[in-house]
Amino acid sequence: MEKEFDCVVVGAGHAGCEAALALARLNKKVLITCLNLDSVAFLACNPSIGGTAKGHLVCEIDALGGEMGINADETAIQIRMLNEGKGPAVHSLRAQVDKNAYHNRMKKVLEDNENIYLKQAEIVEVIVEDKKVVGVKTALGEIFSCKTVIVSTGVYLKSRIIIGEFSQNVGPNGFASANSLTQNLIDLGFTIRRFKTGTPARINGRTIDFKKLQVQEGKDNIGFSPLSKNQNKNVACCYETSTNLKTHEIILKNLKRAPMFSGEIKGVGPRYCPSIEDKIVRFPNRERHQIFLEPESLSTNEIYIQGVSTSLPADVQNEMYASIQGLENAQIMRNAYAIEYDCIDSLELTPWLESKAISGMFFAGQVNGTSGYEEAAAQGLIAGINASLKMDNKAPFVLKRNEAYIGVLIDDLVTKGTNEPYRMMTSRAEFRLVLRQDNADSRLTELGKQLGLVSNERYEIYKSKQALLNQMRNKLETLIKLDDRLKTFLEKNEEPIPKNSIKAIDLLKRNNIDIFKLNEEYGLFDNSEYRLMETLNTEIKYSGYIKQQNDEIEKLKKQEQVSLAEIEDYSKIKGLRIEAQQKLNKVRPETLGQASRISGVSPADITVLSIFLKAKK
Amino acid sequence: MEEKTICAISTPLGNSAISIIRISGDKSLEIAKKYFVSKSLDYNFIEPRKMYLGVFSNQDIEEKCMMVYFKAPYSYTGEDIVEFQIHGGEYLAKKVLEIIAGNCSLASPGEFTKRAFFNGKISLDEAEGIIDVINAESQAELKSAYNLSSGRFNKQIVEFQNMLKNILARIEVALDYPEHDEELITTNQAKEALKEISNKLHELITNSNSGERLKSGVNIAIVGSPNVGKSSLLNSILGKERAIVSSVAGTTRDTICETIIYKGIKFNFTDTAGIRNQGDEIEKIGIEKAKKEIELADLILFVVDLSRDMNDEEIRLLNSLEKDKTIVVLNKKDIAKEKVIKNYETLAISAKNDENINAVLDRIYKKAISNNIDLSKIVLTNMRHKNILVKAKELADNALNEISNLSLDILAFEIKKIWQELGKITGECETEEIINEIFSRFCLGK
């Protein structure tokens, strides 16, 4: 049996799978281990992929040649475009996926890849010599040598679940936790922190009175990846209900038994994923909280109760869930729980997710303090790419904040750090208007191709889409004759009539005219090109704003190109304020641009730095 | 390094025969041509390093002046530089700078020197020196911004930012949590808020033009109970100094502001209405104003009548003042014995006999210097603030004009720009602040 690998990926969750596949597709020999092979790409919380900002991440992963998008499309049972009507920058795809199918398919993709060895094992030690990774050791005493390691252990490091007074040292869903690796990380010099998250109960759908609930149907047969052949993505429904005063009363009555308030839980929980008891305490004036019921899989009755994650004791859970409309007779199949786990401080990583202290050791996913499958997958992809580049002695691959949500995510992690599980939000992206789902491929696919990650098939689809877009752009240059038809059209839309004939593109610049109205009247395009028409419409209507953002990006470019790699000790730079020295020494930014984004580093400090660099030359 | 064009007043402010306004960068000459009119000038060929006599003019101003052009790289900064030499006086210099700044940016602390360095005009040995200059100037600017505009001004900007942050958070929740069930924001609400901000910005800008809020110089409030001799003190001070720059008087019960220049520093004295708790409506308004003046002041002269003991009200008032900023002036030394007030810096005078008035001025001067109020930076800071307000208002008005056509993502973009512009004054401009606002206001999450 093989004992030598280019890379060992520790953990086969959403980060680990992307990392292993990226490496394998770049022709590296990969060992990917998982504590339990039944938890490969396991959706431990929501049975859904995407949503605001997360949908953007998935489209970007797909544009770069990653797997998540196509895996979600192939196993989707409902899909919707969120935020239509709120502006194209925030259009976000969300898929309900079949949790079992999702796991099965991803596992099979790993298994089928000749460069990947998928193995059930617990890694207890990363073997390091001279600050360089040389191998890993399993709990069974096996040793595998490797040049790089990607730690993507998710929430499994020393995890503990808590349900009321009960707690147990296990991972999500009763899967075993990894209890040895934390000590190894501490010995290697990493800072370990304890974060917390939670999940709601799963209920048998047979015992839910769906007639009392509002139905939410999927409507768009679209997907994250153009590679997917799944034409039937809407086969299941979600439902909506809410908590009520009775639910709140039950919770308040039992509050002292909630581990969050009794002091039993010490981990830092995310503000954006509060437990129901948290919501009720923090927002006492709200009489109801929304709940969505999501099907877990077509092969089970289990329903995920979104909005009611809790760590209250089991008896309170029974009473509480039963107080909700539609759930009066509900059978809880799996109880809600809170979970605590160890993670590292992402400030100890480079922008390509390698440890600053140990060469060849990469980290990705929830172990870096993030939350969410999509955030994890994005990091896994980037860690995988960079581990491969490192072994090829090539420069790291770092996406900038203006290039991708992935860039924003990782830059935030390694520049600002996070004190709670980090969730991607569109409001974190300062260049939101240029980072859209619909242009993810034009932003990233060429880059993915250069890396060697994008398949020929994916690249051809991208190329023909670009060609079609260009054709359509040219069509918009068509002159539209000033005749009665145009006059009626403009009058109907309350737009002034021009003196001469006018180009279609100029009509589109009018406030009251969009590409769909124009197309309805003049039939320039085939209606099946709906999404591309939307892209064009955005390009034209947003051009002024996009230009403003591009100008801003251009301004920042220079600072992004100034390397700080040679500065060893910031406390020796005269003129930097103490706070700036300390922060800079901690973060050790790669570029002047990154330095400028560290909180506590002022514009004057940046000037001082640039003068120092110039003087050094 | 390719950079934007910058401008600044390069001579110290205060009384001087001439002021020099300097522009550096690619657009220098273009800007100069726009305002400089001279018969001796061939606009197609302006000879470098030659002094031209002409007039600086636009619709507001017509000022005889000299202009000289330094062609890159043969200039202090290594870029194209134009200098205008105009008559001395702060008002004029500010006016000219303001006109020029409409076409380019105001220089940041140490920016001319920084550019000189980056363009190789200054040797490496001097690099450290520049860092000191930049740090010193940034600090001075920060301090002056704080000293002179803290209190009311800063609070007001923070308030605007909070309003914007509130709308922004509501929009962002709508964008990031499409299924959230609270009604978040309507276009009308956003419109109303923007209108309010635009109006308030307008008010602030107008006031800064009349010099009420963003005035430059060291602001001194004369405070005390009625009839302790505040006005006599002010009259004595003014009598000592002939260089009265302006005199703005309100009603007798309103605040009165007088400006003098002493040892090259501009001092704005405000005689406040006597503060006491009873009184009629008009007097109450005066007292309100007095309280605001105290907030705005860099230094306070607290006047006490030596011929009687301080009453409770006076003691309370004195205790409410910042000690570092306060000098207690014991008046009517001619008719009563001096005494000591614990913990306060005191000075006995007789306003009636002009006794010890010079000592008052000296004391103020020293305190202004020791409190580190860097005067040359004050004007620039205030002007920068004003420019920011103008820009913010412009952004708000643009957004208002377009609001019915804007989708939510664009509206958020527009509002964030205003918030960030004002953040240049308050320092609050990190996206994290908005995210904090989102989570503190709304119950979100699965």
Question: Quick one: how many beta strands of chain B?
Answer: 14
Distance between the termini of chain B: 49 Å
CATH secondary-structure class of the largest domain in chain A? Alpha Beta
CATH H-level superfamily title of the largest domain in chain A: FAD/NAD(P)-binding domain
The amount of beta strand of chain A, in percent, is 15-25%
CATH C-level category of the largest domain in chain B:
Alpha Beta
Shape of chain B: flat
Give me the strand/helix succession of chain B. Answer: EEHEEEEHEHHHHEHEEEHEHEEHHHH
CATH architecture of the largest domain in chain B: 3-Layer(aba) Sandwich
End-to-end gap of chain A? 53 Å
Low-confidence stretches of chain B: 144-150, 210-215, 241-253, 373-380
CATH fold-level label of the largest domain in chain B: Rossmann fold
Largest Cβ-defined interface = A-B, 53 and 42 residues
Q: Output the CATH topology of the largest domain in chain A.
A: FAD/NAD(P)-binding domain
Structural class by secondary-structure content of chain B: alpha/beta
**Could you say which overall geometry of chain A the principal axes of the C-alpha atoms support?**
globular
Adjacency order of strands in the biggest sheet of chain B: 3-4-5-6-2-1-7
How many separate structural domains of chain B?
Answer: 3
Strand content range of chain B: 15-25%
Describe, in plain words, how this protein is organized in 3D.
The complex is a heterodimer of chains A (617) and B (446). Chain A is α+β, with helices and mostly antiparallel strands. Chain A has four domains: 4-46 and 104-195 and 341-426, FAD/NAD(P)-binding domain, CATH 3.50.50; 202-340, Elongation Factor Tu (Ef-tu), domain 3; 476-545, no CATH class; 562-616, GidA associated domain, C-terminal subdomain (DNA polymerase, domain 1), CATH 1.10.150. Chain A has 21 helices and 22 strands. In chain A, the strands form five sheets. In chain A, strands 1, 2, 6, 7, 8, 9 and 20 form a seven-stranded mixed β-sheet that branches. Chain A has a six-stranded antiparallel β-sheet with strand order 14-15-16-17-13-18, with no helix packed on it. In chain A, a hairpin with a 4-residue loop joins β8 and β9. The radius of gyration of chain A is 26 Å and the shape is globular. The model of chain A has no long low-confidence stretch (mean pLDDT 94). Chain B has 446 residues and is α/β, with parallel strands linked by helices. A seven-stranded mixed β-sheet of chain B has the order 3-4-5-6-2-1-7. In chain B, a hairpin with a 4-residue loop joins β4 (51-57) and β5 (62-70). In chain B, α4 crosses α11 and α5 packs antiparallel against α12 (408-426). Chain B is flat and about 70 Å long. Chain B starts with 5 loop residues before the first strand and ends in a 5-residue tail after the last helix. Chains A and B meet through α21 of A and α3, α4, α5, α12 and α13 of B.
